[in-house]
Batch of 4 targets.
Target 1
Amino acid sequence: MRITQHPILTFDRGKEIHFTFNGRPMKGYEGETIAAALHAAGVKVLAKSLEKHRPRGFYCAIGHCASCQMIVDGEPNVRTCITLLREGMTVETQEGKGRIK
Ligand code: FES
């Protein structure tokens, strides 16, 4: 869900950006973060806790908590709440601490 109307704010959408999430084609808009685009598409679970593998989603949304870490273009531990979408990027759910290639 995206906010489209607000009494005092305007939302200028950038161009459409295409990316994949766990192999599924997805779309967002230029200027959005990965986590925001996933959230708008109904994806609420971004990561799992390290020990008990409990679902994690948006928490701080400012890059301070690591609740949204995912694998982006093969790089683990990317905080998707502060990483902007780029055309063609691949985003994957991360299990555990992530492996550095
Ligand atoms: S939600 Fe806290 S770092 Fe992304």
Target 2
Amino acid sequence: MTPRAAQQYAAERLRRAGVPSPEHDAAELLAHVLGTDRSRLPLVDEVAADAVERYDALVARRAAREPLQHLTGEAWFRHVRLEVGEGVFTPRPETELLAGWAIDEAGHYLGETPAPGRAPVVVDLCTGSGAIAKAVAQEVPHARVHAVELDEAAYRWAERNLAGTGVDLRLGDAFTSFDDLAGTVDVVVCNPPYIPLEAWESVAPEARDHDPHLALFSGADGLDAIRLLAVRAAVLLRPRGVLGVEHADAQGEAVPAVFSATGRWTDVRDHRDLAGRPRFTTARLAP
Ligand SMILES: C[S@@+](CC[C@H](N)C(=O)[O-])C[C@H]1O[C@@H](n2cnc3c(N)ncnc32)[C@H](O)[C@@H]1O
């Protein structure tokens, strides 16, 4: 079978199943089966029968709405590769913006911290696969990066992904951990659970059935974790340290309001993603 025919058949099957990016996923899965990458598929003349069989099996699982990244076993986040699968939240491209903000902030802090020349201290609360922490460690090599995850299964994925990066990974509750860093952190970054419990029905099957629920839902209005974060980040940060937190697109006013209401934060701002949707809030701890 030619790769083109195999891909067209698979894309049609995925389209009928309601998969949002059928052509892309059909190509990614074929590249995975053939041990190549998507850009090199046009160089392949023929897909052998055993490869067609393996491809078919993966396409069937994708049509049943298993996340693409669970089928390939990997997710790319900025410039880092992460291993992902059952038990851990799949990192999303939109979170790369929040990570980019943390990277810029950490980069700028060198020389501006209370002790000039001190390495910037970054804490990734709710690290999941370790995506944000790993990206910061890679792009700001002089930063001291710490990360925490509550769920044991997710923690084990993070352990694997952060091995050899120098990130200090801990198993525990983000909103009580790191007493040892209190008052010293330059950047707190967090992609917490933020979906309202009642929005269960509207969550895509890939997320609803395969992301851990602890990673998705956070109380009736989705803001429980963010309220705790507004208190805990104020303990961890040094005066004038900064915080960035992702939120749902409907929370572009509610999340800044959580921070403004405490009276502890200045420069509270919301940021949009590339599609123009409200995506994350940043704030600075009042001096
Ligand atoms: C939306 S996921 C984000 C994961 C990762 N930071 C990313 O952006 O891909 C939220 C993560 O927070 C973890 N989590 C939820 N409540 C937590 C808590 N109280 N302390 C630490 N981690 C928590 C979940 O298990 C999940 O891994």
Target 3
Amino acid sequence: MSEKVDHRMEAPETVTPVPRRRFFQWVIQAAMGVIALGLAIPFVGYVMFPVFKRRESSWVDVGSRDEIPVGEPAQLEYVATIHDGYVETKSQKAIWAVKQPDGEVTVFSPMCTHLGCGYTWDRGDRKFKCPCHGSVFDLSGQVLAGPAPRPLDRLPAKIENGRLLVTYKEFKAGVREQSEL
Ligand code: FES
């Protein structure tokens, strides 16, 4: 018995062309996606950016340079504006400023570098003294006695039109190297 041979030709594979309408739909959707992304990025930045702008510091006018006596520390009021996300709060700090004979002013953070207590100027002794654990600093902020691991922290300061401008910063207490918080 002989096998029957099917002589019909196999149909060639056909490639179904993508309908033109579907192609244009795809292009339009892609374009809309790009536009949406372009609008979303600035919006997200606008919404999220304040969250990352915590504790923004800026120059604050703390008084006239002429009112600071030469060689005698003056305690000045610094009104700090703190931005925490969308919340803006104000807090007052009592910073120390020392004016040199040449008019240059050094400003110290009000926090003792040992554990952050507030210290005072002893006029009679001409030293800064911390009441908490007995650290003592000289007029230039150097440690004279006590457990303070480093000199008093200096704050950025500048004079503009006779006014003393200060940027308030806080530093890690109890460590030898100055490290901003
Ligand atoms: S906090 Fe000033 S000596 Fe300890």
Target 4
Amino acid sequence: MVTTRTELQWTRVAALSDVAPGEAKGVRLADGRSIALFNVDGRIYATDNQCPHMGYPLTRGAVRHGILTCDWHGRSFDLEGGGCFNYECDDLQTFPVDVRQDQIWIQLGDAKYKRRDEHLRLLWEGLLSEDRWTISKAIALLLKGGVPEKRIVEMVLRHLGRHIASSHDADEGGAVSRLINGLKVGRRYGDADRLMVLATAARSVAGKAAERLEVVPLPSPVEWDSIAGWTRMFSHDSQSERIERCLFTAYHLHHQDKILPLLYECAVEPRFLGFAENLLSLGHLAEIIESFGWEQSSELVFNLGAKLIGRRRGEPERFRRDAVGVMTSMVPITEALHVSTNPVVHYDEDAFVTALLSANIQKSFDGVAAVLNAGVKLDRLITTLVLLSADRMARTPVNVDAGWGALTTELNLAASLRIAERQGGDRIAAKELFHAAWQIFANRWLNIPVRPLTAPLGGEKLDVPSEDAGVQLILKSIASLNVKDVGRQVLEYLNAGYPGNRLLHEMGRAMIWDDTNTQVLPTLSTVFEEWERSGGSDPALGGGHPARYQLLVGLARYATDIRTNKDRVSSTNTAMHFAEGKTTVDVFEE
Ligand code: FES
């Protein structure tokens, strides 16, 4: 380590004799930074020793015609000014040098972070080129530089809006889900875990984003009633482009508060039975607006929203055609309801569940109509659907095809009814109940035995000396892909009286560091929220419900069964060390 004497920000870093002509030397400053000194044609140059690409020590690079080329991936820099000649690599920091009495002095300047714009541009570049490393590195550097997470996410969100708007696919809703759920899960963690989730979420929405013509509002005069009527008609006729212009006009005319309810109104129509993704994506768009406001989200919401409710549906197969007919005949029931005043919380939940699992769509929808007519509170019904799906995840046989995709859609759709209720109102949520019931019907191929949801779960108590030992045992099962035991262990852990919050937090951490993290994020996010919601005493939200433990049991089994244990997430780890200024430089210096 170099001992330095500082004089007006000038720091003495080496003797001239330490750097032989044509050679380079690395010196370590008191603050831990590694500086590279080059003696080229009798002149001394000083740069950061960490290559801005992936941290390789630049003292190992080659200098030719004033250009320094890193020896690892060949990125080149102007040795004097630091400018980089390649993509996906920011400029190199260089320092003024003065040689006085055979001593080398460099001017470090203040340590204030000044590269925010450069790193935001780097993030944008990484998102466009889908380069995992560049995205992780840019986020790590921005966070290290104190740039607020919100600013970083806004950039990712802007990219996502562009990316979706320039693709022709309505199934891009998955990217929105990964982003919003990643953010929600990330908020529950700190430091490396949080960076991991943020980088995962950002990487999962990367992709091409072409320029497109700006959508302009319809010329005036246009009234809201016309916009709403046209949107309904275009949704019926699968004309998404026309819907986008309607939505944009509504926003321009300051009707933004009416846009989500209108999108929901179209999406819960019987013709969209079987399009669970529509409702899930609308829920995510709603959450994005709630978190970031209209200005940041409008392009994304109008474009994706229009694609969702204006999608082509194709000819329905026989079961779906029947279901559309049955639901259509029941719409008047939902229209006549005053559900917000529905007070009933205690109802025959097992009868409702039996109807939903009857594998008969008429019985299933009759069951929904019956509980609505009986005045059961919507929150209570949503809780039933959430816990029913969790219970099925906790018990699905894993020997052949556990049906995780189908089951997690069931769970996440059920939970997203809460957003539909919040954003669209009770009647919208009541209609969405039929869509959730359809989803369960569509999953009738799953070989899960039927059981009363209100029956106690039973089971032993986990025989461990402490909460910590129990958590470690379960984490070990997850890591070793022991799906046979992990569900039982989680149940026994909870039976032993340990609160689940710590276990859930630790299980979540294990999941976000696995390379299935992108896949798990939406369900992890749902379980976090539903576990919290049902932790109180309100029975409408699941407080005291005997099936509540199944939320954690189902999640543990799911994450363990899909786990791959392939380590492809290390780029985030490396990026974090990179942002700290320690990567390969340290390795080579040691
Ligand atoms: S080019 Fe320097 S680390 Fe990749």
